[in-house]
Write a structure and sequence with these properties.
This protein is of the alpha/beta class. Helix content is 39%, strand content 20%. The structure holds zinc ion (ZN).
């Protein structure tokens, strides 16, 4: 049994990136914890009171979707949406370290460095720093996931693009992943937007084709300690 911590910039990234894998962890008896760094809503051009309501609603969505994937705890850091570049990196790192200390995870899932979204980039950077392999640390494995409409829209040149080398068969859990995603229905767009139910199915099938499964999630391995 392992403790698994998924660290995402915004509520919905965790399901897009590794929802099926997290459900699989829960099914195997692992303890799944989710941590969100930004509120995912405060960059919208609307009244402050309205923003507060949206942030609370998004948190409820994260908890509901967390219940579907079997998450036993959900943490929010409440940093501003799409503005993590205005927060001192050290502050973000320290906040993440606090949760890591609490949860003692062996396995970490987080964003890859290549994403277009600035919050995703910064969360990746902060997580890699917070997870540095110091003696006595619990973390043994770090995997980076892809997020539709951010990873494939990234600015990186081809040699730096997302090149997955770790695939998880989620065929048995794909339906449940979609159920979890439907909790974030305000974030879903009509196809051919990548962040549509159809887009998510296409990526699941494509990553499955990459790896000989019906549906898969793809990761780049950042570090494994054995
Ligand atoms: Zn995001």
């Amino acid at each position: 049994m392992s403790n698994v911590l998924v660290i995402s910039a915004h509520p919905d990234d965790e399901i897009l990136g590794c929802g099926g894998t997290l459900i699989k962890h829960s099914a195997n008896g692992d303890k799944v914890y989710q941590l969100f760094v930004s509120d995912g809503e405060s960059s919208r051009d609307i009244k402050k009171s309205q923003v507060k309501k949206l942030i609370n609603k998004r948190k409820q969505c994260a908890k509901k979707s967390g219940a579907i994937i079997g998450a036993i705890e959900t943490y929010f850091l409440d940093y501003p949406d799409n503005k993590l570049d205005e927060v001192p990196l050290l502050l973000i790192i320290k906040s993440i370290e606090k949760i890591i200390k609490k949860v003692s995870p062996e396995i970490i899932y987080t964003h890859c460095a290549q994403d277009l979204n600035i919050d995703h980039q910064i969360v990746h950077r902060a997580v890699i720093t917070a997870c540095r392999p110091l003696p006595g640390k619990s973390i043994k494995e770090i995997y980076c996931y892809e997020v539709l409409s951010s990873t494939e829209w990234g600015l990186s040149e081809s040699q730096n693009s997302f090149n997955p080398n770790f695939f998880v068969d989620i065929s048995k859990y794909f339906k449940q992943k979609l159920e979890a995603l439907k909790m974030y229905k305000d974030e879903l767009k009509p196809f051919p937007h990548p962040r549509s139910l159809e887009g998510i199915r296409v990526l699941g099938n494509y990553r499955g084709m990459n790896s000989g499964f019906k549906y898969a999630e793809a990761f780049s391995v950042k570090r494994i300690l054995k």
